[in-house]
Design a protein that fits this description.
Helix content is about 40%, strand content about 15%. The strands form 3 sheets. Strands 2-8-7-6-5-3-4 form a 7-stranded mixed beta sheet, sandwiched between helices. Strands 9-10-13-12 form a 4-stranded antiparallel beta sheet, with helices on one face. Strands 1-11 form a two-stranded parallel sheet. Helix 2 runs parallel beside helix 7, helix 3 packs parallel to helix 4 and helix 8 packs parallel to helix 11. The chain is globular and about 70 Å long. The relative contact order is 0.16.
Length: about 375
């Protein structure tokens, strides 16, 4: 298979990940934080060390602020449902995923919140005058935004967004699902209250792993309550981190795999991984731009592009193109990608979305050549 759907989940995973998980499942017994025998202690140490690796990767000084979740969706729901209060005014981008929009839509009905959207131009540049006008005029309480679109791959300038939110003393919650692991992220300079991201995409970890990083002054209601292995004498939820937001048994074997993936990322360096991805994305872009029948929707500026290419072929539906690619064992994504607002922004909503190619640093030029050759065959066959 030629796998080009890394925006959904990464494949292949980090080297050694599968063996690490298998070894953990087969040889390490026990829970974490709940017993004192060797297996349980080993699991508790594993989870602590994984937090420490995350802190190193994101330049955070307190690893206890990394809360394990099962995915970025759970992290976003925790931050949004736990912190957005009645009648608050929320500012979002026009590119939001349903992991942001569905909890906000729920709160719109249940807590009477207002949802506003800042403006982007056709090249995905933020209208900063509009951005600040909305903060002041609508008296915004929180900015909740993606910083890399899962539809177009466009990167929004997270540092400037953070600086403006600090200027107006407004809470910032970031959906970094398509960003962390692909780009360096410095929590010491990006002053967000919460940063939400998965373990299974840019971090090259297994599914069932996600993270919620919270600032030291961000206090919100937990999404779940229950056993933490601490304060067992009390029926009240612990109020210290990370226990306050981590009830129940975590995905220990998954976290073991994530730890292995983090070792790989830290050893390689994100700049090296990013440069490999940019090289293969540029090669893809140069090839596909030569096909006149292809309509490209993604931002083509590599400095503001995470590495996602969304397109359609004239007079063909996205499902037709994807079906033909799948017949050649080429895996891509089609449809609305769980982000209807983004498709309305790029005018692909009414045609059922688009085809999305998302290579990784492991993708070869030979795989891109085969993909382009197949697209040419699809176009020629359709025309004939």
């Amino acid at each position: 298979m030629i796998y080009l759907d890394n925006a959904a989940t990464s494949f292949p995973k980090a080297p050694g990940l599968g063996k690490a998980i298998a070894n953990h499942i087969e040889h390490v017994a026990g829970n974490t934080g709940r017993s004192s025998y060797s297996g349980a202690i080993k699991n508790s140490l594993l989870i602590f060390e994984t937090r420490e690796k995350l802190a190193e990767l994101l330049n955070a000084n307190d690893s206890s602020r990394f809360i394990f979740t099962k995915n970025a969706t759970e992290a976003l729901n925790s931050a949004i449902l736990g912190s957005v209060k009645k009648a608050e005014k929320i500012l979002i981008s026009p590119l939001e995923h349903n992991s942001v929009m569905r909890p906000l839509t729920y709160l719109q009905a249940k807590r009477n919140i207002e949802i506003h959207s800042f403006k982007l131009d056709k090249n995905f540049n933020i209208d900063w005058l509009d951005f600040e006008y909305q903060l002041e005029n609508h008296k915004i309480d929180k900015v909740i935004t993606t910083i890399a679109s899962n539809v177009s791959g466009s990167i929004l300038p997270v540092n400037k967004i953070s600086n403006i939110c600090q200027k107006y003393n407004i809470d910032l919650i970031i959906d970094a699902s398509q960003y962390v692991g692909y780009m360096p992220f410095d929590t010491s300079t990006v002053k967000a209250k919460a940063i939400c991201f998965p373990g299974h995409k840019g971090l090259l970890g297994p599914s069932g792993t996600g993270l919620l990083y919270i600032a030291d002054d961000f206090i919100f209601e937990p999404l779940t309550f229950g056993g933490t292995g601490s304060k067992s004498e009390s029926i009240k939820q612990p109020d210290f981190l990370p226990d306050k937001y981590e009830s129940g048994t975590p995905n220990i074997s998954g976290i073991c795999g994530l730890s292995t993936a983090l070792d790989y990322l830290l050893e390689q360096g994100l700049d090296k991984i990013r440069n490999k991805r940019k090289e293969i994305y540029l090669y893809l872009l140069e090839q596909i731009r030569n096909l006149e029948e292809v309509i490209i929707y993604s931002n083509q500026d590599l400095e503001r592009q995470i590495g996602i290419l969304s397109f359609n072929i004239e007079n063909m539906t996205p499902s037709e193109v994807t079906y033909q690619l799948d017949k050649k064992d080429i895996a891509v994504r089609m449809g609305l990608h769980c982000a209807p607002l983004a498709h309305k922004f790029i005018n692909t909503y009414d045609i059922g979305g688009n085809v999305r190619i998302s290579p990784s640093s492991f993708t070869s030029k030979e795989e891109i050549d085969i993909t382009i050759k197949t697209l040419k065959e699809i176009i020629y066959g359709f025309k004939r």
